[in-house]
Amino acid sequence: MRAWCRPLLGLAAVLLASLALAQEPLEALPAEGFDHYTLALTWHPGFCESRSRPPRECREADLREGAERGFVLHGLWPSLPERFAERGINRRRWWQEGCFLETPRPDGSFCRAHPPLGLPAPLGEALDATMPGRASCLDRYQYAKHAACLALPEAAYFSASVALVERVNASAFSAFVTLNQGGEVGRNDLINAFEAAFGEGTGRALRLECRGRGNRLLTEVRIGIATERLTQFPAAESLVRQDRGRCATRVRIATFD
Protein backbone atom coordinates (compact mmCIF):
# COMPACT_ATOMS: atom_id res chain seq x y z
CA MET A 1 0.00 0.00 0.00
CA ARG A 2 1.31 3.46 -0.90
CA ALA A 3 2.35 5.55 2.09
CA TRP A 4 0.17 8.51 1.12
CA CYS A 5 -2.89 6.32 0.98
CA ARG A 6 -2.82 4.82 4.49
CA PRO A 7 -4.03 7.86 6.43
CA LEU A 8 -6.70 8.54 3.83
CA LEU A 9 -8.47 5.21 3.70
CA GLY A 10 -10.35 5.71 6.93
CA LEU A 11 -10.87 9.37 6.11
CA ALA A 12 -12.35 8.45 2.74
CA ALA A 13 -14.89 6.14 4.34
CA VAL A 14 -15.91 8.76 6.87
CA LEU A 15 -16.12 11.58 4.33
CA LEU A 16 -18.09 9.61 1.79
CA ALA A 17 -20.51 8.34 4.41
CA SER A 18 -20.97 11.91 5.61
CA LEU A 19 -21.42 13.05 2.04
CA ALA A 20 -24.18 10.54 1.38
CA LEU A 21 -26.05 11.59 4.51
CA ALA A 22 -25.52 15.35 4.42
CA GLN A 23 -25.90 16.37 0.79
CA GLU A 24 -29.29 17.08 -0.66
CA PRO A 25 -30.02 15.16 -3.88
CA LEU A 26 -28.78 16.84 -7.03
CA GLU A 27 -31.51 17.90 -9.40
CA ALA A 28 -31.17 17.10 -13.08
CA LEU A 29 -30.45 19.96 -15.46
CA PRO A 30 -32.09 20.22 -18.87
CA ALA A 31 -29.60 19.01 -21.46
CA GLU A 32 -29.76 20.29 -25.02
CA GLY A 33 -27.95 17.64 -27.04
CA PHE A 34 -24.59 17.38 -25.29
CA ASP A 35 -23.16 14.30 -23.62
CA HIS A 36 -21.11 15.50 -20.66
CA TYR A 37 -20.12 18.37 -18.42
CA THR A 38 -16.64 19.39 -17.37
CA LEU A 39 -16.59 20.55 -13.76
CA ALA A 40 -13.67 23.00 -13.56
CA LEU A 41 -12.41 23.54 -10.01
CA THR A 42 -9.69 26.02 -9.14
CA TRP A 43 -7.06 25.54 -6.46
CA HIS A 44 -7.27 29.18 -5.45
CA PRO A 45 -3.80 29.70 -3.91
CA GLY A 46 -2.19 28.22 -7.03
CA PHE A 47 -4.35 30.29 -9.36
CA CYS A 48 -3.51 33.49 -7.50
CA GLU A 49 0.21 32.73 -7.47
CA SER A 50 0.16 32.08 -11.22
CA ARG A 51 -1.28 35.49 -12.09
CA SER A 52 1.04 38.36 -12.93
CA ARG A 53 -1.85 40.75 -12.22
CA PRO A 54 -3.96 39.03 -9.56
CA PRO A 55 -7.68 39.92 -9.57
CA ARG A 56 -9.62 41.18 -6.54
CA GLU A 57 -10.35 37.71 -5.23
CA CYS A 58 -6.61 37.16 -4.88
CA ARG A 59 -5.65 40.55 -3.47
CA GLU A 60 -8.36 40.98 -0.83
CA ALA A 61 -8.02 38.77 2.24
CA ASP A 62 -11.76 38.56 2.96
CA LEU A 63 -12.39 37.17 -0.53
CA ARG A 64 -9.69 34.53 -0.04
CA GLU A 65 -11.02 33.40 3.33
CA GLY A 66 -11.67 29.65 3.41
CA ALA A 67 -10.45 29.09 -0.16
CA GLU A 68 -7.46 27.08 1.08
CA ARG A 69 -9.79 24.51 2.66
CA GLY A 70 -10.91 23.07 -0.65
CA PHE A 71 -11.47 23.77 -4.32
CA VAL A 72 -13.46 26.72 -5.61
CA LEU A 73 -15.69 26.92 -8.66
CA HIS A 74 -14.37 28.01 -12.02
CA GLY A 75 -17.24 26.70 -14.10
CA LEU A 76 -19.52 23.90 -15.26
CA TRP A 77 -19.00 23.48 -18.98
CA PRO A 78 -21.31 21.54 -21.32
CA SER A 79 -19.53 19.64 -24.08
CA LEU A 80 -20.09 20.45 -27.75
CA PRO A 81 -23.87 20.49 -28.40
CA GLU A 82 -25.14 18.55 -31.39
CA ARG A 83 -26.73 21.60 -33.00
CA PHE A 84 -23.37 23.38 -33.05
CA ALA A 85 -21.59 20.28 -34.36
CA GLU A 86 -24.14 20.07 -37.17
CA ARG A 87 -23.10 23.58 -38.22
CA GLY A 88 -19.47 22.46 -38.54
CA ILE A 89 -18.33 23.85 -35.19
CA ASN A 90 -15.59 21.63 -33.79
CA ARG A 91 -14.84 20.98 -30.13
CA ARG A 92 -11.85 23.33 -30.05
CA ARG A 93 -13.86 26.28 -31.33
CA TRP A 94 -16.72 25.52 -28.93
CA TRP A 95 -14.32 25.57 -25.97
CA GLN A 96 -12.85 28.86 -27.17
CA GLU A 97 -16.08 30.71 -27.96
CA GLY A 98 -19.03 28.80 -26.50
CA CYS A 99 -22.32 30.67 -26.59
CA PHE A 100 -20.52 33.75 -27.94
CA LEU A 101 -20.82 31.98 -31.29
CA GLU A 102 -24.49 33.01 -31.22
CA THR A 103 -24.42 36.09 -28.99
CA PRO A 104 -21.11 37.91 -29.49
CA ARG A 105 -19.17 38.77 -26.38
CA PRO A 106 -19.78 42.38 -25.40
CA ASP A 107 -16.99 44.92 -25.25
CA GLY A 108 -15.62 45.81 -21.84
CA SER A 109 -15.81 43.93 -18.58
CA PHE A 110 -18.67 41.63 -17.71
CA CYS A 111 -19.27 43.65 -14.56
CA ARG A 112 -20.28 46.54 -16.81
CA ALA A 113 -21.68 44.69 -19.80
CA HIS A 114 -23.94 42.23 -17.97
CA PRO A 115 -26.35 42.87 -15.10
CA PRO A 116 -26.06 40.72 -11.96
CA LEU A 117 -27.62 37.29 -12.20
CA GLY A 118 -31.09 37.02 -10.73
CA LEU A 119 -30.31 34.37 -8.12
CA PRO A 120 -32.21 33.80 -4.88
CA ALA A 121 -30.39 35.35 -1.92
CA PRO A 122 -29.41 32.03 -0.25
CA LEU A 123 -28.00 30.71 -3.52
CA GLY A 124 -26.14 33.95 -4.10
CA GLU A 125 -24.53 33.68 -0.66
CA ALA A 126 -23.56 30.05 -1.32
CA LEU A 127 -22.09 31.03 -4.69
CA ASP A 128 -20.09 33.85 -3.09
CA ALA A 129 -18.43 31.27 -0.82
CA THR A 130 -17.95 28.71 -3.59
CA MET A 131 -16.77 31.04 -6.35
CA PRO A 132 -14.42 33.82 -5.15
CA GLY A 133 -14.13 34.92 -8.77
CA ARG A 134 -17.65 36.25 -8.47
CA ALA A 135 -16.00 39.41 -7.14
CA SER A 136 -14.70 39.88 -10.71
CA CYS A 137 -18.07 38.84 -12.23
CA LEU A 138 -16.80 35.38 -13.19
CA ASP A 139 -20.32 34.03 -12.64
CA ARG A 140 -21.76 36.35 -15.29
CA TYR A 141 -19.02 35.41 -17.74
CA GLN A 142 -19.35 31.67 -17.15
CA TYR A 143 -23.11 31.73 -17.60
CA ALA A 144 -22.95 33.88 -20.74
CA LYS A 145 -20.28 31.69 -22.35
CA HIS A 146 -21.29 28.20 -21.30
CA ALA A 147 -24.99 28.13 -20.44
CA ALA A 148 -27.04 31.04 -21.77
CA CYS A 149 -27.53 29.56 -25.26
CA LEU A 150 -28.46 26.11 -23.96
CA ALA A 151 -31.67 26.93 -22.07
CA LEU A 152 -30.01 26.23 -18.73
CA PRO A 153 -31.85 28.27 -16.07
CA GLU A 154 -29.51 30.47 -14.04
CA ALA A 155 -30.62 29.32 -10.60
CA ALA A 156 -30.66 25.61 -11.49
CA TYR A 157 -27.28 25.84 -13.21
CA PHE A 158 -25.51 27.49 -10.29
CA SER A 159 -27.34 25.45 -7.67
CA ALA A 160 -26.05 22.29 -9.34
CA SER A 161 -22.56 23.82 -9.64
CA VAL A 162 -22.42 24.64 -5.92
CA ALA A 163 -23.64 21.16 -4.99
CA LEU A 164 -21.01 19.52 -7.20
CA VAL A 165 -18.21 21.55 -5.62
CA GLU A 166 -19.46 20.64 -2.15
CA ARG A 167 -19.38 16.97 -3.05
CA VAL A 168 -15.82 17.15 -4.27
CA ASN A 169 -14.74 19.13 -1.22
CA ALA A 170 -16.35 16.54 1.07
CA SER A 171 -14.14 13.86 -0.48
CA ALA A 172 -10.80 12.37 0.48
CA PHE A 173 -9.38 13.71 -2.78
CA SER A 174 -9.93 17.30 -1.67
CA ALA A 175 -8.61 16.39 1.77
CA PHE A 176 -5.41 15.02 0.20
CA VAL A 177 -4.80 18.23 -1.73
CA THR A 178 -5.59 20.39 1.29
CA LEU A 179 -3.32 18.41 3.60
CA ASN A 180 -0.42 18.71 1.14
CA GLN A 181 -0.65 22.45 0.47
CA GLY A 182 2.68 24.14 0.86
CA GLY A 183 4.50 21.07 -0.43
CA GLU A 184 4.93 18.85 -3.48
CA VAL A 185 3.25 15.60 -4.46
CA GLY A 186 3.58 13.25 -7.39
CA ARG A 187 1.18 13.78 -10.28
CA ASN A 188 0.28 10.10 -10.07
CA ASP A 189 -0.35 10.47 -6.34
CA LEU A 190 -3.05 13.03 -7.15
CA ILE A 191 -4.65 10.61 -9.60
CA ASN A 192 -4.40 7.77 -7.10
CA ALA A 193 -5.97 9.94 -4.39
CA PHE A 194 -8.86 10.66 -6.76
CA GLU A 195 -9.34 6.95 -7.36
CA ALA A 196 -9.14 6.22 -3.63
CA ALA A 197 -12.01 8.67 -3.14
CA PHE A 198 -14.20 7.87 -6.13
CA GLY A 199 -13.36 4.37 -7.29
CA GLU A 200 -10.82 2.33 -9.19
CA GLY A 201 -10.27 3.58 -12.73
CA THR A 202 -11.99 6.93 -12.14
CA GLY A 203 -8.67 8.75 -12.47
CA ARG A 204 -9.31 8.83 -16.21
CA ALA A 205 -12.09 11.36 -15.51
CA LEU A 206 -9.61 13.75 -13.90
CA ARG A 207 -7.58 16.35 -15.79
CA LEU A 208 -4.91 18.24 -13.88
CA GLU A 209 -4.03 21.80 -14.91
CA CYS A 210 -0.69 23.32 -13.92
CA ARG A 211 1.12 26.55 -14.71
CA GLY A 212 4.44 28.16 -13.94
CA ARG A 213 7.91 27.05 -14.90
CA GLY A 214 7.85 23.44 -16.01
CA ASN A 215 4.08 23.17 -15.40
CA ARG A 216 4.66 22.35 -11.76
CA LEU A 217 2.13 24.61 -10.00
CA LEU A 218 -1.35 23.12 -9.54
CA THR A 219 -4.00 25.65 -10.51
CA GLU A 220 -7.07 23.62 -11.44
CA VAL A 221 -8.64 20.19 -11.74
CA ARG A 222 -11.31 19.25 -14.26
CA ILE A 223 -13.72 16.36 -13.85
CA GLY A 224 -15.86 14.84 -16.60
CA ILE A 225 -19.47 14.07 -15.65
CA ALA A 226 -22.00 12.33 -17.90
CA THR A 227 -24.96 14.60 -18.63
CA GLU A 228 -27.58 11.93 -17.95
CA ARG A 229 -25.88 10.90 -14.71
CA LEU A 230 -25.23 14.29 -13.19
CA THR A 231 -27.53 13.52 -10.26
CA GLN A 232 -25.42 10.44 -9.40
CA PHE A 233 -22.14 12.35 -9.00
CA PRO A 234 -19.63 11.38 -7.62
CA ALA A 235 -20.56 7.74 -8.24
CA ALA A 236 -17.98 6.10 -10.50
CA GLU A 237 -20.56 5.43 -13.22
CA SER A 238 -21.28 9.17 -13.49
CA LEU A 239 -17.71 10.00 -14.52
CA VAL A 240 -16.40 10.22 -18.09
CA ARG A 241 -12.89 10.27 -19.48
CA GLN A 242 -10.98 13.54 -19.84
CA ASP A 243 -7.89 14.30 -21.88
CA ARG A 244 -4.73 14.31 -19.79
CA GLY A 245 -3.36 17.63 -18.62
CA ARG A 246 0.26 18.75 -18.87
CA CYS A 247 1.38 18.80 -15.25
CA ALA A 248 4.92 17.75 -14.44
CA THR A 249 5.60 14.49 -12.64
CA ARG A 250 6.02 16.48 -9.40
CA VAL A 251 3.35 19.04 -8.60
CA ARG A 252 3.52 21.90 -6.12
CA ILE A 253 0.38 22.74 -4.16
CA ALA A 254 0.51 26.41 -3.21
CA THR A 255 -0.83 27.91 -0.01
CA PHE A 256 -1.68 31.45 1.05
CA ASP A 257 0.92 33.03 3.33
Secondary structure blueprint with pairings:
Layout: H1 6-22, E1 36-42, H2 44-50, H3 56-59, H4 61-64, E2 72-78, H5 82-85, H6 91-97, H7 110-113, H8 121-130, H9 138-146, H10 154-169, H11 172-179, E3 183-186, H12 187-198, E4 206-211, E5 217-226, E6 239-240, E7 250-253
Antiparallel strand pairs: 1-2, 1-5, 3-7, 4-5, 5-6
Helix pairs in contact: 1-11, 8-10, 11-12
DSSP summary, beta strand count:
7
Along the chain, the helix and strand elements come as HEHHHEHHHHHHHEHEEEE
Rg of Cα set: 18 Å
Q: Shape, please?
A: globular
Structural class designation: alpha+beta
CATH class of the domain at 36-79 and 123-130 and 151-253: Alpha Beta
- Residue windows where pLDDT falls under 50 for at least 5 positions: 1-22
Structure explained in plain terms:
The protein has 257 residues and is of the alpha+beta class. The protein has a domain of 155 residues: Ribonuclease T2-like (Ribonuclease Rh, Chain A), CATH 3.90.730.10. Helix content is 40%, strand content 16%. The chain is built from twelve helices and seven strands. Strands 1, 2, 4, 5 and 6 form a five-stranded antiparallel β-sheet that branches. A hairpin with a 5-residue loop joins strand 4 and strand 5. Helix 11 runs antiparallel to helix 12. The two termini are 33 Å apart. The N terminus is likely disordered.
Task: Write a concise keyword list for the protein shown above.
257 residues, alpha+beta, two-stranded antiparallel sheet, 12 helices, 16% strand, RNase_T2_His_AS_1, RNase_T2-like, Ribonuclease I, signal
